[in-house]
Amino acid sequence: MSKSILVTGGTKGIGRAIIFKFAEAGFDIYTCSRNESELQQLKEEVEGTFSGIKLRYQQADFSNMEEVARFADWVKSQTIPDVLVNNAGVFLPGSIHNEPEGNFELMMHTNLFSVYHLTRAFTQEMMERKSGHIFSMGSIAGLTAYANGGTYAISKWALLGFTKCLRQELMEYGIKVTSVMPGATLTASWEGVDIPEERFMKASDVAEAVWSAYNLSPQSVVEEIVIRPQLGDI
């Protein structure tokens, strides 16, 4: 029986790179995003590239907790994934004192609350099975304060705390929990900026780090992955 991985926000950037890496290794894929046509295109690309691999998807907006619950129920009706990658997120720059009203709620719901609720949907079954690996896609903004980070940074600091607590809860059940904190990666979040491409990390490098952490023996776990551009933060 083939293994499966659930990657939220899978159509672009790091999520997409992780999907391709695990599909190459024979994992069936479950994913979601807000854009139905991009999901269908991803399915065609993955299944057309990797023989025998199935990519199943559902459209979902992770700022809406009802849609998170609906997506979780849909996945659970088919499988309990071997790997869960909480990757969906949104970045809106701004400072705490003057960012637009609603930024806080949107980013906290998307970047933190959705991870909390989606993870809880699968933990009991993973605990009973005594296996699984949960990755939370944070950011170096969850380690270092940035003046223009605003709520995004707050959500990523909180996500790191959530993941640390989850690790302590699940370690005795054989479930691994890893925080991934990338620096500036060439994804849609940076579209339009006047910065040379070579200053950014590649999404495929983050995917390789996730794959390497997953492949350790049962006796070891990578608790935190911090990856920065070679020339430093942007």
TrEMBL record:
Belongs to the short-chain dehydrogenases/reductases (SDR) family. PANTHER family: ALCOHOL DEHYDROGENASE (PTHR42901). It comes from Litoribacter ruber. This is SDR family oxidoreductase. CDD domains: SDR_c. GO terms for molecular function: oxidoreductase activity. Keywords: Oxidoreductase. Coiled coil: none annotated.
